[in-house]
Amino acid sequence: MSRRSGVLEFAVLGLLRESPMHGYELRKRLNTSLGVFRAFSYGSLYPCLKTLVGNGWLIEESGSTSQDALAAPLSGRRAKIVYRLTAAGKERFEELLTHTGPDAWEDEHFGVRFAFFGQTSRDVRMRVLEGRRSRLEERLDKMRAAMARTRERLDDYTLELQRHGMESVEREVRWLNELIESERAGRDRRDGTAGQDRTTERDEDRPPPQDQSEDADGPPRHRGGSRPDPSDDTAK
Questions:
Q1: Which of 82, 106, 128, 229 is at 20 to 30 A from 193, Cα to Cα?
Q2: Are residues 52 and 128 in the same domain?
Q3: What one-character DSSP code corresponds to residue 219?
Q4: Residue 165's domain spans which residues?
Q5: How far apart are CA 220 and CA 229, in angstroms?
Q6: Could you write out the DSSP letters of every residue in 13-73?
Q7: How far apart are CA 111 and CA 105, in angstroms?
Q8: Cα–Cα distance measured from residue 129 to residue 114, given in angstroms and rounded to the nearest whole number
Q9: What pLDDT is recorded for position 16?
Q10: Which of 186, 203, 225 is the last residue of a domain?
């Protein structure tokens, strides 16, 4: 499977995990929610859907209402096919969510992975973000070195274009730094709250202290505030 088709598989499974959709609706979501797929066509999407159905990760259902079903024979249109994620498809998507290799850091795949960060564990998010930052820092070093070597031979417009590219990468690195710090702060808050909860539980498990206060004119009070038994010799 090519890298691009692998990204499409991941995106389709992720969107269908949210709700079943027919092909046109799915393509719209790919274009609007995941802008990286603007260049995709039905010729790319439907073979992917057929493959996912063949793997048992999707099933096809008729999505027509009762009125549409009656009108379909008259209009000559076929009923819309709705694609629904199977249990095996959910497992496949959850498996893909855990992948943090270099493919997850590349331009095309990272945008799709980031779109599903809400369904991704914190540790995986951190590895993907740090991997993406590392990849961009390497790219930035290469861009700076290339500009230093060639700036004397470049015209002003080409030089400005390269500078614009560098600034775009620098902005993304700063953005990634903020995201990583936010993830770390969230983890620290979670760990701190867990520690406070454990402390509270320990405090609640402790027995209440016994009341050892004394009356101004008499002996220490008995537990429960009861008076001494008058028949007790010590009370006489």
A1: 128
A2: no
A3: S
A4: 121-186
A5: 14
A6: HHHHHH--EEHHHHHHHHHHH-GGGTT--HHHHHHHHHHHHHTTSEEEEE---HHHHHHHH
A7: 9
A8: 9
A9: 96
A10: 186
